[in-house]
Give the backbone structure.
Amino acid sequence: MSINLMIREITAEETYSIRQPVLRPGRPILECQFSGDQDEGTFHLSIFQNSNIIGVASFMKNSNPFFKNHTQYQLRGMAILAEFKNMGYGSLLLKEGEKKIDLVNKDAMLWFNARITAVDFYKKHGYECIGKPFEVPGVCEHIVMFKDHLN
Ligand SMILES: CC(C)(COP(=O)(O)OP(=O)(O)OC[C@H]1O[C@@H](n2cnc3c(N)ncnc32)[C@H](O)[C@@H]1OP(=O)(O)O)[C@@H](O)C(=O)NCCC(=O)NCCS
């Protein structure tokens, strides 16, 4: 059977079916709601394989005092279902988000609190670490990562 892939925008609520098992396993669905989810400028992308949702990523217009850039977006809730990891789907989702932001604002940068375990994935996409690692209580160790030019 051929694999049919599609990336499209979804609502914040539609991300929960992926956020929960990947990022908040065993935790209440309420913990899948992130601040900024409903803000103007936020968009949520999903990747579908043969009409099944297998990954999500959210992009929010949010500034971090680490950076002086005028237009800053934050990536949150980047997650691919375990059985679909390392197949290139996360990369497709990230690149689509970068492209969408860059189309609207050529000067925009993207930053996020990366799980230490995912740092190498982001480095492959040109992101750099800044500052010291820190613990997100109840989740795991994170570090801030960023990229200035998204095109
Ligand atoms: C991190 C994540 C989003 C990456 O998505 P993915 O679809 O698995 O990644 P891809 O298949 O597109 O990976 C592209 C490359 O990064 C590598 N890679 C993927 N995840 C990696 C990881 N955790 N550590 C190191 N390298 C990784 C892949 O081997 C691949 O390398 P290659 O191109 O040289 O073969 C996904 O694995 C995931 O959801 N992980 C669990 C949740 C998580 O950590 N989310 C990020 C929160 S900041």
Remarks:
- The longest helix spans residues 89-104.
